[in-house]
Structures are given as C-alpha cells and as structure tokens.
Amino acid sequence: MDCELAQQKIALFAYGELPDDQCPALEGHLATCQRCQEEFAAVQALQQAMAFAPAQEPSANLLAQARLRLEEALDTMPRTSWLMRVQQSMFRGVSMLGRAPVAASALLVLGLGAGSWGGFQYAARSHRPPVAELAGAVEGAGKIANVNSIVREPNSENVVVHFNRLVPETAQGSLDDPRIRELLVLGTQSQVNPGVAQNSVNLLARECEAGHQCADGPIRKALLVALRYDKNSGVRLNALNGLKPYVAEDMGVRDGVLEALLDDPDATVRSRAIELLHPVEADSRVREVLHTVASEDDNPHIRTVSQEVLDQSPHIQ
C-alpha cells in the first residue's frame, strides 16, 4: 500500500469505518511509514478534541429547509424507466461474462432474465407514484416540512402520520395594524432579501416621522439597528428621520444619533444627525460630540455645521 492510498483510508480507520479486510494492509503500512503515522496521529488528536466539543442540535427550521431542498433536488433529477434499468443490468452482466466460467455465465444470464421479467411485471402491476408525488397528493396547502410520528393501528392496515407543513401566507392591512407592524419589524431582520429589509425600514420610518403610533420599543430598536448596520445610506437616512420624534425623550435614540454623527461614512446622514441633535444641544454629551466634530472632523462641511450649532447657543460653549 502506498502513502496516497493509505492517507485516504486513515480517517475511516480511525473512526472504525474501514472494512475489516483492508485493515491489515493499512496497519502494516503504518508500522513502517513515519509520514502516515503522523497523519494518523493528527486524525486521532482531532477525533479526541471533537469528542470534548458539545454536540449542537440543528434547529427544526434548518432541518425542514434541508429536507425541502433535498426533495427539490431529487425532483429535478431525471427518472430512469424500468427499461433503462434493465438495459443497465444487462450491460453489467455482459461485462462479467468474459471473466466468468461457462456454468456461472449461464446461471447469470438466467438470473438476469428472470429478474428483469419479474421487475417488469412488478412495475406494471404496482404503478406506485414516487415519494414526492405522494407528499404532494396529501390534502392541504403548502409543502410537507417533516414527519413527526407514524403509528400503525393494531390489527389493521391503517396508519396515522403526524407531519408539519411550510405554508406561505399573505397579510393585508393598514400600516397602523399591529399585525402588519409586527411583520414589518420582522422584515427589517431579513437576511435573505435585502429589498425586504429596506422596504420595511422605510415604511416604519415614515410612519414614525409622520407622528403615528411608534412609541413601542421594537420599532425604535429596528430603526436603530438599521441606522447602525445597514449598508445602504438611503436606508440609514430614512431610519434617522424615523427616530427624529424620540431624540429628546429617549436616551437610547439620542446615543444612536450621536454614533451616526461620529461614525457614519455618509456626509448626508451625518449632517442630518446634527439637525436632529439641535433641540437637545444642552445635553453635555451632545456638546462634547459637537465640539469634537467641529474641531477634528475630516469633512469641512460637517465641521462648519457643527460649529454653527454651537455658536447659536453661546451659553453651552
């Protein structure tokens, strides 16, 4: 056994998955090859380290999505007919005839013929739909996510199958509807579709800026997250505008606006942050940030605007 083949089998050997008939050859190679001994030792060390790591159970949502993707992939695979399977079986049998004795060849031909005929008769009688079609034939809307349990009734052919579905739904209503607002807050957290997150932030910000009911914490928190982390400067600006009514009363919102003034890479967002801080310029933290920006910021416009705000209120100098 050469080193390349041995290293392909080392992991299986370490985990006890290597067939018994291949173990002696690998053990003999490991006894004489230092390089493969080191490889085997590294695999064992990794195995021991992994044994101490806590096992993480996948979430139900992850399992459901994985099953759906697997079903979709299987559905897209071309289905081979019974005739194609018979042809493949015959070809494999013919390739073996050259290596088999005459008697074995005769038995092989008879066995292939009988098996092919039996498979054809079975396929003609059963006509059973594939698993994916059975799942789709179950009454109800939505794809089947997973099967929870299967119980067979005693002395009967009946079974009870409990399963879950992934069913897409649609909600329609006013922006003042609590359910719509809850969905919009969830939409701001979308990692799959950035457009959904942006639209959700923009709608919530406009509602808050217009003075509608936005006093609840989740909406403000969603706008603050968008202000801090969204990559789109337009979305950050809309989030900032939505937080305007709460700068005076909510210290968390005020801190978020100060962070935007100091750290946001877009000059328009930072200029807007200065405007929002103007009513609370008496706050010592606001004064400190404005002094820092007016004296140290790289953007001349931002320095000028900050200094103007400070000059308008001499008593806070």
Write a compact overview of the structure shown:
The protein is mainly alpha-helical and 317 residues long. The chain has helices at 3-14, 23-32, 34-52, 60-76, 82-97, 102-126, 131-137, 178-187, 194-209, 217-229, 233-243, 251-263, 267-277, 284-296, 300-311; strands at residues 143-152, 159-166.
Main pleated-sheet profile: 2 strands, antiparallel
CATH architecture of the largest domain: Alpha Horseshoe
At the fold tier of CATH, the topology name of the largest domain is: Leucine-rich Repeat Variant
**Sheet with most strands: strand arrangement:** 1-2
Query: What is the mean predicted local confidence, pLDDT?
Result: 74
**According to CATH, what is the class of the largest domain?**
Mainly Alpha
Distance between the termini: 83 Å
Q: How many helix segments?
A: 15
Low-confidence blocks of residues: 94-107, 123-137
Structural class: mainly alpha
The CATH homologous superfamily name of the largest domain equals Leucine-rich Repeat Variant
List keywords for this structure.
3 domains; single chain; 317 residues; flat; Leucine-rich Repeat Variant
Fold and architecture overview:
About 9% of the residues have low confidence. The protein is mostly helical and 317 residues long. The chain folds into three domains: 50 residues, no CATH class; 70 residues; 139 residues, Leucine-rich Repeat Variant. Strand 1 and strand 2 form a beta hairpin. Helix 1 crosses helix 2 and helix 14 crosses helix 15. Strands 1-2 form a two-stranded antiparallel sheet.
